[in-house]
Amino acid sequence: MATVYYTASSLDGYIVDEDGSLDWLIHRDIDPDGPFHYDAFAATVGALVMGSATYEWIVKNQPGEWMYTQPTWVMTHRSHIIAEGHPVQTFDGAVTELHPTLVSAAAGKDVWVVGGGEVAAQFVSAGLVDEMIVSYAPCTLGGGSRVLPIRSEWRFVESAVNREFLCGRWQVA
Fold first, then answer.
1. Does residue 65 sit in helix, strand or coil?
2. What residues contact residue 117 under an 8 Å CB cut-off, 6+ apart?
3. Burial class (CB in 10 A: 0-12, 13-18, 19+), 159
4. C-alpha closest to that of 3 among 82, 103, 126
């Protein structure tokens, strides 16, 4: 069991552009059976945590039924943002208070810190992230939300190319 920050990034280190868009990412070519692909990763996940901006992006761009089967928490003080029918819980507090709940809900599987970067930074700063997996797309955005907007140290573990993406996995140094 590990707590993993799994995300995609532009070459210059942004998750979304200045307009909060992922258009730069969602039309890229990736092999669904290739290295570091989402489906293989998702099979290892037992619980998820994300920030409110990530949740609101999902609601806006993937309307309808909730897309994850795993227990999910949204870090926010605005509990009213959860769409009707979504089996999602909100949490307003320190990540150190939430993490044991995430680990318990994951039932021996990994905890996925979905993001965004500010939420990931809280988990990394608290020493709660074990691994970071980033798939880099061949573009730059020049601004937006950073992948990880704090200073941190990592040990490189492995990399691979999946069509348009250069993917890497790091563990906390």
1. coil
2. 15, 145, 146, 147, 148, 149
3. middle
4. 103
Name the one residue in this structure whose structure tokens are 């069509």. Answer: 163
- Residue 48, class by beta-carbon neighbours within 10 Å (0-12 exposed, 13-18 middle, 19+ buried)? buried
Contact at 8 Å (CB) between 45 and 171? no
Q: Does position 165 have pLDDT exceeding 90, yes or no?
A: yes
pLDDT tens for residues 74-86?
999 999 999 999 9
Question: Is the Cα dihedral 109, 8, 124, 67 positive or negative?
Answer: negative
85: preceding bond cis by omega (within 30 degrees) = no
Its pTM stands at 0.97
Distance CA 21, CA 26 (A): 10
**Strand 131-136 with 14-16, pairing:** unpaired
Least Cα distance to 35 among 128, 161, 119, 133 occurs for: 161
The predicted structure's pLDDT at residue 115: 84
Backbone φ, ψ for residue 98 (5° rounding): -80, -35
